[in-house]
Amino acid sequence: MLSNKLTKQEIDEVRVYTKKQAKKIKKEGSTTAGVPGFLTPKAFASDKDSEGTETLDLQDKQYAYSIKPSKEKIHFVKLSEVSYKHFKEDASHSQVQKVNKRILEVSRMLREISRALDHSTKLKEESSISDSSYWKRTNEAIVKINRRLAEITDKARKLANIDEATATNVKDTLIGVFNKAGIQIKPIDIDYNTVAADNYEFDIIVQGEPIAIDYKAGELLYQDYNKEIRLGNVNQEAELVANISKILK
Questions:
Q1: Which residues of 62-94 are buried (b: 16+ CB within 10 A; e: fewer)?
Q2: Which helix (H) or strand (E) element contains residue 190?
Q3: Beta 228-233 vs 219-223: how paired, if at all?
Q4: pLDDT, tens digit (0-9, with 9 covering 90-100), for 118-127
Q5: Euclidean distance between CA atoms 233 and 229, whole angstroms
């Protein structure tokens, strides 16, 4: 029967490996999400009584990382986030580049979180799982998720004017889909008014004639003379191009 305990030589190799990963993360300015966990079951025990080797607790002050075993997932090594001081003083990117790259990283992580929640919601509905089936820790996590999302929204508003940022994104989307539909327009041809949160009225000049398009929570609606026609969602470019080409060209 094979033993799953690590020898002293293997532990030394792990120490070298983790330091190399820390250097790699420092160099790339990346999050710790890309660092693979160790897949040896119980390779890093949370205490000496656990099956496996003694607790592995490494610290590397030079790179501001602390490497400690997880008490719940003892076969993974977790690298803590880079400190703000390191983030600020990292000379590999300009300050503007660092802020932009970090925001893009957050956006990617939020997409992954959204996908994970979508999968969980769909499976819950298909399997008729009731809320009473949640573990106590799951309920606590849901409450924390809700609270953290609110905190993230507040922090995002400190980074930029959300209303202006949203309007600018929609304006860029309109220029792109109109041009792909064969209707050439430029930024100067579009003006907008803010109606409410996530709700805007866009006026687009096409060959000297105004076209009114409303944006409501991701949906684009063409305001014809006597009716409202849905063009599509801003995230569905192919649908928008096809409808604009069919209705407005």
A1: ebbbebbbeeeebbebebeebeeeeeeeeeeee
A2: strand 190-196
A3: antiparallel
A4: 999 999 999 9
A5: 12
